[in-house]
Amino acid sequence: MSLRRFLLERGIDEDIVRKMEEEKIDIDVIQEISDNDLEKYLQCKGDRIAVKAFASEQKNKDTDNERKLALIDSLRKRMGVPNMSDTDDEETTIGKKRPYSFSRKFKKRKQAEIASKPDRAMVVGFAILDSSAKAYRQIRAPLGGGTRYARVNKNTRKNELIKIICPLFFPDGKNCHGNINDYSFDISTDVHGTQLMQNESIEEITRRL
Predict the structure, then answer these.
(1) From CA 40, how far away is CA 37, in angstroms rounded?
(2) Which residues, listed in sequence order, are joined to residue 120 by a DSSP beta bridge?
(3) Cβ neighbours of residue 151 under 8 Å, at least 6 residues apart?
(4) Which of 32, 77, 115, 126 has its CA 20 to 30 A from that of 207?
(5) Which 3 state secondary structure label does DSSP give 111?
(6) What is the DSSP letter of 201?
(7) 140-155 residue pLDDT tens
């Protein structure tokens, strides 16, 4: 799991996540940064503790992966087999973000397999229009927001999608923000409120993005 996804799943506002990315507050920095400095980005102490633990866990995984890959390369050399990085049909494997290697043919076959499936997995959030700021405000998990997961047919269009997504945030038709009937809903592809076109399908949105 990436740091971005971890933060968003904890309900951290995307603007804050983007600011951390812009200022290069990555996993390595989080391990070294003081709690006071981290508080400038994450106000909640629980979030700071969680992200520190996440960074430490990811660092340990990276170290383990690099050791395994070094061992594999050593064994390949002893057996007279070319290293993965020396082959034309495979991509370099050693690195924090890409610890494994798959052939290009395999990747293309996998992409074609995914494209042939009738449904698509979605990760969705909940934002409310702040009329005073004239901007959408993402709602965090403790307040009924956070992220939800759905799997829908790739031909599903906007109006149908709204009917599927809304109950995820309004179980039994309500949450701490009120009744589902008190709101009018729309779907956007980002926190800035870029709305979907009325007749766009999930498949068309995926291709456009």
Answers:
(1) 6
(2) 152
(3) 119, 120, 121, 122
(4) 126
(5) helix
(6) B
(7) 887 788 888 888 888 8
